[in-house]
Amino acid sequence: MIELCLVEYEMLEYLPSKLAASAIYTAQCTLKGFEEWSKTCEFHTGYTEEQLLACARKMVAFHHKAGTGKLTGVHRKYNTSKFCHAARTEPAGFLL
To answer: 42-81 b/e with 16+ CB inside 10 Å = b?
Structure first.
């Protein structure tokens, strides 16, 4: 998730800590299929679920369009067997 954000200018508005926490939140939602942000996650990151939603929604949008457009390097990288074809994972569309 973080690598998808590296080439996006609009993600510069977020602190690195918020990007990292949002990436974890987005990945959890993508893998589990529902929103999950426990009090433990909140304690260790310092961010509530509500504080992460805007950034996470942008990450999901980038994930959704990762295979199309001009900048597809990250998608190609994670679509290899070395990374277990992680790019084929469906984005957490319910966050949009």
So the answer is: eeebebeeebbeebbebbbbbbeebeeeeeeebbeebbee
* Topology of the domain covering 2-95: Cyclin A; domain 1 (1.10.472)
- Token look-up 């990762």 returns 66
Give the pTM: 0.82
Instruction: Please give the DSSP secondary-structure letter assigned to residue 94.
Output: G
| Contact status, residue 66 vs residue 74, Cβ threshold 8 Å | yes
The residue ranges of every structural domain in the chain are: 2-95
Contact 35, 68 (CB under 8 A): no
pLDDT tens digits along 48-64: 999 999 999 999 998 88
